[in-house]
Amino acid sequence: MLIREFVDQDWSQVWPIIREVIGAQDTFTYDPAMTSEQSYAVWVEASPGRTVVAVDGGRVLGTAKMGTNKPGPGAHVATASFMVAADARGRGVGTALCRDALTWAREQGYAGMQFNAVAESNRSAVELYRREGFAVIGTVPGAFRHPTLGRVGLHVMYQEF
Asked: Quick one: average pLDDT of 23-41?
């Protein structure tokens, strides 16, 4: 598996992953009715941010976007988001994408990385982020409407560099 910079030709494989993830409504706060064009505008980061894909052969298995969490006085903290194709989960794609984002953020001189909205029901992601050095620093109770579990909390997770 190779992680590389996103190029426009990747969108035909990235969009189905995004559509699948947001359509499930069980991990991301994105509107499941987002179009391809709207998703592109949200997912593909302009410089100095970065969007990458994890590929195996010619197939995109997952994608990540990263950049500054908030502008101005908060610009020293990075953020990132990750999506992995359903049939590629459990194969280390998410871990590789997370490690790539952390390496990038450190190289860019950020002081840490913050995830603003990790559904507490997304146990695999929470455990992955903890393994990679993140801590839950707060949870907004009932802030995420899970399709089968009802309202669950959204974690704010952080790692200081």
From this structure: 96
